[in-house]
Amino acid sequence: MAEEQMEEASTAAAATPFQLQFDKPIPFQIKMAEWNPEKDLLAMVTDDSKVLLHRFNWQRLWTVSPGKCITSICWSPDGKIVALGTEDGLILLHDVENGKMLRRIKSHDVAIVCLNWAEDEPQSKTDKDGLLSYEDRTTRFFPPAPVVPRIGGLSSGDTCLGDENEESIQEFSSASCQRFNILCSGDKDGCICFSIFGIFPVGKININEVPIHVQSSGSKASYRLQDASISKVSLSGNLHKLVLLCSGKLIDIDNISHSNDISGGLHCLHLDTSIFFNRKNELHQVSQQASSIQYLVEVVRASISMMAKQWSGAMNLFNEKFSVLPSLITAHGMESSSEDEFMSLLFGTRTSPALHQFLVSSLGEAALKRIAKSVDSAGRELRVVVSEHLQPAVEIISFRLAELRGLARWRSRFQNIGLDEKLIDGVTERIGMLVVQVERFSRVTATVLYLFQNFFSWVLKCVKILLSEPTDQVPAANSEFVVLFLKFLLDKDPIKQLLDADQRFECHLDTAKHLEQLVVLGGFTDTHFLERSLMKQFNELEESLKEAFSMPFTTISSQIHCQALLPLYPITSLVDLSSTCNLTSVSFYKDEDSQHSGPSYRLTDYICFKIPDGSLNLRNCIGVIKDFSNSSTSTPSLSGFLLRIPDEYECVDLSLYKDSQIVVLLSERSCSDNPGRSYIVMLQTENFSFVPLSKIFPSNIYSIQELAALELQLDTDYGKVRSVPHAVSTPLAVSASRGVACVFSSRRHALVYILDEDEDEDEDEVSDME
């Protein structure tokens, strides 16, 4: 009977079929796919976690291999960035133009199973672009921010920044002209993270720790989730609410003894995130400065790391050659030091046998020139890193912190989002100390390189004379500089010490007193900063930054609350409970009948999900719920319906589409080796009767049990049906903005269908994009 219905439906739909755009073989098994919201681009993740980007005509633009297991994917609202969640809790942000990684953010400790990037929608026709008008004044006074240094092919080390792509990073870091947006990510341990513009973490909640208060038979009851795992998150376009789906056990806090009566299952929660909308201007300004500061902090870290590597390489060669001299001195039965031997040579103009052997045989002219060249090259590269990367980064950080300091003093607006004036003052002082440390490092480097140059020049002359004629007499030198070199540099390395976090310097007593006198003039209170190295000062700045930026993070997190709970269906199997492969889809749609034009315009949420066979004594059923986040005890609007699929078919995947439509992928159950037929079905929810649902606990905890399952009659006007010439598999990729759907077959074919074709199009019209 169901087969006949399918045939009839496919025939009846001939007047309005889904147009097949193309059918292409693919060499990979696809596990995830997502359409770009603004362009005809499809991002796909293969079973071995390669990321592919294809055009609508199936031309491949790029392929990247992040080297990590990809567990989730989504696009930025403007379509310029693709976000990838990994098994180890990282979020990787890649440029759509070339696939290069822009940022790597550690937001979670476990696998990120879902991502959702929501943008603040324009609230009325007068709100032209919905853009925030906050001006970033940094560009008035500074050139473009420096990038991570890359000199001589040497890597600066592991940072949170991505590949070398200066233009993309500059554009990505500038959020002053972007519409306000937030990236939400959920992991398998029940944590949800929020990042403004995808780069500045602004909040995190663990759904297992969030109290859930519900109405229960005329009174309030409190629940909490245990062992919850997030499977889907969706933030509304007005940023007021977040609807999430998670599996876990529901525990009655007020009556723990009866909690075992409530089995684990899939639950729907509504979180109040109105803080994002109410304070979006303040959050935008803070995130604008803070995200740029975090980027520049990575530039500083990479610069210091680069300089340490460069200088270490040169000094290793120097020490390797000059470490031979002490051994020769001992071998000749002498008790002097290397410094004594050179001093004797400098002032006595005669060489000892040990020093003569070292200069003529062990060192030689060629080796000395090689060392001098290595030190000179390292010195030049240090100056480049300081002038082009380190110093500009520190100065821009200082300016941006001054901007934040001004915002922090506007307590009525910024205190509510956790911008602490005292903490920002502390960070501002530390960046001032770092500016001084960079200046000191620059001066010390210049002095050290000058002393090295004079020492090498004198030693080279000595070697040349000793090699050209058998004499113990050597040329005189600028004794002042050579003495300074021998006294301070032969056994010590000031540059290395300044780049060492564990090094501590002794400050001259007069200098310390002078600093204490300067404190009276104001501006700083730290009188011991000269005792610290450059790296130590940077570490202290970083710690104070973390403390200051953790306050908005903590404050915002504390203002996200659970407003409603709706258990969808029970899961008895522990394997199914921990599984993140539930077929679900959540979307918000603006009410067509709503005339609101301010922050109160109404969004209706739709939740679509497949119920596991046997749960709630149902089989082969799809549930659809709407108005969950708009429901309240005074004006209940929660409603839904159940749809039963014919037994001969199973639901492979499903997705909500625009205008409250649902696209369902069906596959015929086949007992033979031959694959059965498959169908893509688009259902109009307006053709189904939504039945009001109760929200009273716990007498009927699964409200969906109140619904009677409707038989899916595909030969009626429920929607459109199209036969797929292959056995299909997940995923189903649907684009509401482009009006297309991509279906993948189990035999590695990709089929793209036009969902919104004209009514008079002929079924046989196929555009061949070969």
Q: How does this model look, in words?
A:
Strands 19, 20, 21, 22, 26 and 27 form a 6-stranded mixed sheet that branches. It is elongated and about 110 Å long. A hairpin with a 3-residue loop joins strand 12 and strand 13 (200-206). The chain has 770 residues and is of the alpha+beta class. Helix 5 packs antiparallel against helix 8, helix 5 packs antiparallel against helix 14 and helix 8 packs antiparallel against helix 10 (421-468). The relative contact order is 0.12. Helices cover 33% and strands 28% of the residues. It contains 15 helices and 31 strands. Residues 267-468 form the Anaphase-promoting complex subunit 4 long domain. One of its GO terms (cellular component) is anaphase-promoting complex.
Descriptive labels:
15 helices, Anaphase-promoting complex subunit 4, disordered C terminus, 5-stranded antiparallel sheet, ubl conjugation pathway, elongated, alpha+beta, single chain, about 775 residues, 6-stranded mixed sheet, about 30% strand, APC4
